[in-house]
Design brief:
single chain; 305 residues; alpha/beta; 11 helices; 12 strands
Length: 305
């Protein structure tokens, strides 16, 4: 494929056509007349040797190839936007733009709140958008990072991408304050016999893998996609939950639960900001990463190995 022969404006037209599935609406969306959008559709059909949009009754539906291109063109559009938004210089006090960060609710609560406060003070024109970590993060890391400004995630889940370490945390257990069979300590037998409430994504994979290596198979009674809901689902029950100590410190006062140390040496947790290599030398991203690292140091940073 010779990219020099392609009109990159067709990426914008293709996305509008596939998402709107209507030539007139697609043209209105991108500021083109109906004849101009029809001409763009004709060029795209010739390029792909496919109708892309097929009339069915009184409306259009995507062809099989059109369906394949639907997700790909959204990714390509996002990559191009970020590519051409790259800057040689960046003045946080004067700039106005948005940074999108992928993060779990744990990372937002523990790190994101302080990070947002610092950005608010130092860069009033900067907007932050936190999006939930998708379940596909391990399988499509390259695509995910290419369409966002960064990913907040601990080491041990993804690799082979640049990252800056932010802070250390550790794993603890939550049990109900009035738990009928757990005192000040948990035993490994308790971990095997008691029901669990767990965070359902692969985000905490290193901690889960460690349990398997210890021969402990959690009996999961409830799973949820929010770390912050764990205390509420533990309170007043026989359940237990594995949670980060920093988050436990924030949430324990909100529900009748208490923190208990693991009956084993839990795998360490080191939170990092990951990014796609395409952003490495961009001035705005350098500022973003340096600011994040500075906030991490204020939180205690990372300990030497």
């Amino acid at each position: 494929m010779n990219l020099s022969r392609l009109d990159l404006n067709l990426v914008v037209a293709l996305r509008a056509l596939l998402e709107e599935r209507n030539v007139t609406r697609a043209g209105q969306r991108v500021g083109l007349s109906q004849p101009a959008m029809s001409a763009a559709l004709s060029r795209l059909r010739r390029h792909f040797d496919d109708d892309l949009l097929a009339r069915v009754g009184g409306h259009y539906e995507l062809t099989a190839l059109g369906q394949v291109l639907l997700d790909r063109v959204a990714t390509a559009h996002a990559v191009l936007e970020r590519l051409f938004a790259s800057q040689a210089d960046f003045d946080p006090a004067e700039e106005s733009r948005e940074f999108k960060l992928i993060a779990s609710d744990y990372a937002v609560a523990v790190f994101g709140t302080e990070f947002a406060r610092v950005v608010h003070e130092e860069a009033p024109g900067i907007r932050l958008r936190f999006a939930q970590t998708p379940t596909t993060v391990v399988d499509s890391t390259d695509t995910l990072l290419s369409t966002t400004d960064g990913l907040l995630m601990p080491h041990g889940v993804i690799s082979d991408f640049p990252a800056t370490d932010l802070y250390d945390d550790r794993w603890v257990f939550l049990v109900a304050k009035d738990h009928p069979s757990v005192g000040d300590r948990l035993s490994r037998q308790d971990l095997a016999r008691l029901p669990w409430v767990t965070y359902q994504r692969t985000y905490d994979a290193p901690a889960v893998r460690q349990l398997g290596m210890l021969g402990i198979e959690p009996r999961v009674e409830v799973s949820v996609d929010s770390f912050q809901l764990l205390p509420l689902l533990v309170a007043g029950t026989r359940r237990l939950a594995l949670v980060q100590a920093r988050l436990a410190g924030l949430l324990a006062p909100l529900a009748p639960v208490r923190v208990v140390e693991p009956p084993y040496e839990a795998v360490p947790l080191r939170e990092a900001l990951w990014w796609h290599p395409v952003h490495t030398h961009d001035a705005a991203h350098i500022w973003l990463r340096e600011t994040a690292a500075r906030v991490g140091r204020r939180m205690g940073g990372v300990r030497d190995a």
